[in-house]
Design a protein that fits this description.
With about 220 residues, the protein is an alpha+beta fold. The protein has 5 helices and 8 strands. It is globular, with a radius of gyration of 17 Å.
Length: about 220
Amino acid sequence: MIADLVPAGVRAQDAFGDSGPESTATLFPAEQAVVDGVCDERRKEFTTVRGCARAALARLGVAPTPLVPGPLGAPRWPAGVLGSMTHCRGYRAAAVARTAEFAALGIDAEPQEPLPDVVASRIVTGPESDWLRQQFPEDAGLPLDRLLFCAKEASYKAFAPWTPTRFGFQDFAVRLRPDGTFRTVPPSAAMPPAGPCAAGITGRWAARSGFLLTVVVVPRTAGR
């Protein structure tokens, strides 16, 4: 599903749960050390999403390599490659691309369910709530708070490699559109004032098979 949202040049692979071929991926020792002692469910999703990543990397001609989380949790990718992973209940996915072609890449998937009220209050800002009411009919049939969260998560993943600072969800301003796109304006501290993406970037979203999917991809010509 995620492959339908990424542009040409980006390779993606997904899996529904942990019963397909991606779930049989062999973990490198450095990866195994990350999940030693964790619950079985966490170990399975960790393994499957890396199986997805290795399948996507193979389509770029990149050999399997350890994909170990860095200090902020994002995986370290092979030289010359950028990528993003996501996993939620029943779904795992990864997308990768060459740094020569793309400057940033972030994906996220969430179940198509509303956020708990206490969580939504920490995600959705007042201006974003007003925007959603203006853009989407009341009977849109979408959990817009969860979709907004999903768009912010993909945006964070895309911008995170450019800055060592950890930002919060309300630091990203997102405008969802009914046409399957959204506009994200990153925190001012995340980008140089004159940076070509400082004014924002456009992402894509979709609701399919009970999941919400979001993708942010920045071509190299639009990056730093």
